[in-house]
Amino acid sequence: MTNISSSDWTYxxxxxxxxxxxxxFALVALFVWCWRIMxxxxxxxxxxxxxxxxxxxxxxxxxxxxxxxxxxxxxxWDTLNIATLGTIGGxxxxxxxxxxxxxxxxxxxxxxxxIALFIIVTSRSINSLIWALLLVAxxxxxxxxxxxxxxxxSIGFVGKLLYxxxxxxxxxxxxxxxxxxxxxxxVLTYGIVPQIMPALWSISVFRxxxxxxxxxxxxxxxxxxxxxxxxxxxxILAWDQVLVILILILATVVVSEWVSAQVRxxxx
Amino acid sequence: MSSYPxxxxxxxxxxxxxxxxIAVQIAALVYLVLAVGSVEVNWMxxxxxxxxxxxxxxxxxxxxxxxxxxxISQGLIESLTxxxxxxxxxxxxxxxxxxxxxxxxxPRPVYLFxxxxxxxxxxxxxxxxAIFLVAMFGFGPFAGFLTLSFATIxxxxxxxxxxxxxxDETQVEAIRSTGASWFQMLNYAVQPQIxxxxxxxxxxxxxxxxxxxxxxxxxxxxxIGATLNTAIDRYEYDSAGAILLIIIAIVMVAEYSSSYLRxxxx
Lengths: 268, 266
Known about the structure:
The complex is a heterodimer. Chain A is an all-alpha fold.
């Protein structure tokens, strides 16, 4: 009788294991190297001091100064407006961009599609805060800079999800419309638009929800809303006012998340 | 001969009641008018700014990589090292938290505690966390590293926990019926099922952390964002354009290589 239990069964071959081990080793080495570069300028005295600092800030923050709340209602209204108007603007621009970027609706795959994709990638890779930073420098501080920043950032998000939805439409319905002798615009309105309408609504509401979070902090660079108040309170080290603002932002985010979940449930 | 209608309109789907629909439409219109009305725009300032905007577009088209290259490369190195270290540390911490937040394999108190940690991490904005950590730990990439690690915990923890809750229970039961301990069950039944997803999520988070590292520099947490902020404050739009182009290029490379790697690993 042959002894089959002489060696344990293993999932991987020795070569495979060595390869895997080298991979993990390389990752650890890279991590250590990066850590050394990153922390070479760190002042460790400040790091060890951090718990004391945290306690200090914590004691200054509590109790929150609720008397500050009425003053925050106008910035809250501004924040909601930045998010809503920015979303509307972004969606309006994103719709044509998405139709140019989708493979089945683009008028020219060689010229216009790469341009549309480049617009989407550019808008997606730059955070709305950086857009706001630029726009505040260009058109001055205020709500308009915030609205445009939110709109510019939303184009990429909505455009990408929408053009994927357009590419996933059912070709049979489009063929049926084409077979009736419909013009290209009629194919668009009767074949494609009804199919992507639910996706468009749910993407827009989802983005609106994200935009509420982002518009709350855009004021830190001067683009209006709650962030502006927070910047002012931080500048005078009024941590108890900062805490009130933070609680208000958190409450707004929770409410907007609930609204967007309800609306998306109603659509789908 | 009876006459049939020649046109057809699809009845409205979401709000079937006509009066309610009109009320909602009017409310939306009133809100829009009020909202647009409350936006105060200083058109003088905007028209003055357009010239600057033109200069920025020119700077974007003719970026100046050389004159501030020392600062840019310093910021980039900080951003990249911060991204990698924070992703590694964040993922390492989020693995136990993600396991603890899966309803199907841990007792209820542990589950509630870990879900609470995840909820806190997810609901606080990176930038707000960065403000506090900069106040506590001083300026520089270390505060940024902590911010990104903290944000990573919520992101990976939640998605990992959702993944573990959806593992194939029959495999878990099979391993359990051999008399395996809790850790052996985790190692042989759960880990092989979630590993591809965990690697994919980590790569995705690496990508997000780089983008975020470009932002948190604005409040003093180091990285390329600090350099960008300085460049814009000094109206050096050609250097700012160069930084933005570098960020876009790195994000694109990261996105393509991470999607390629994820395909390769699966």
